Amino acid sequence: MSDKLQSTPATAFALPDIASLTLRGRDCIAFVQAQFMSDVAALGDGQWQWSGWLTPKGRVIALFAVLRHSAEQLDLIVLDADVNALATSLKRYVFRSKVSIEVPDDLSASGRFAVPSIAQGATAAIGTTGIELDVGTTAAPRTLVLGQAASGIAHDAEAQLRWRAFDIAHGLPRLDADQREQWTPQQLSLERLRAFSVAKGCYPGQEIVARTHFLGQAKRGLAVLRSAAGAAPGDDVRAGEQALGKVVSVAGDLALAVLPLERPGAPLQIGAIDAVDAPLLDGLAR
């Protein structure tokens, strides 16, 4: 921890599709433990993990990182979703719990392709000037910062695309609006990120997730495909005339698709475009 985060050498750029909301109150840990799919109660102060919120049928509504400040404060660092709508939806389940849910209006997300100055792995750096997370790997470091909007932060479309492609290559789904509430955690291979628990107790969708896990019924998972630009989320992935699955996320010539874990070795197409398997990289689990 540090009161002031030191700068990292790489140029920072804005990440407008990442935002945050804050939960405060004596019941905030119990509230999120009963709502989200990861074991938030296992976090220590200053630690974070990947998590998400599911429908009762076990489909992913939103993906985010959960950061614990203390027993009475958590941040959700939300990927791609409308945080105001997410906050409104969560508030419906507060009932008599002592927890408030707020969207900070003075924080924005930025990224750097550089080693974090302080944060490491699942331990964040929380300072008066912002929050720093290590969202890279040993071989390919990245730093995510949540802080007050600064005039010097570039809106670099090329860097933003590179950031998204990194996520896709490492199996972190980026869910556009039409891909939400479509997929189970196992179909999105979120066990690779340790983003859900089958042992912590009840939460929306938990029965579906646990049954799939303990009965060994997961038949589909993520694959990274490389093709000429033009694929879109929701596109079919085919082997000849057979539809095998669908594209979930894209970035440039990379596509993240849900496909059978056992599938034919026939050539693949996304629409009419040839596609080939690319490595599904590790290193983002926390």
From TrEMBL:
SUPFAM superfamilies: Folate-binding domain. Residues 222-273 form the CAF17 C-terminal domain. PANTHER family: TRANSFERASE CAF17, MITOCHONDRIAL-RELATED. Keywords: Transit peptide. Pfam families: Beta-barrel_CAF17_C (PF25455). InterPro entries: CAF17_C, YgfZ/GCV_T_CS, YgfZ/GcvT. This is Folate-binding protein.
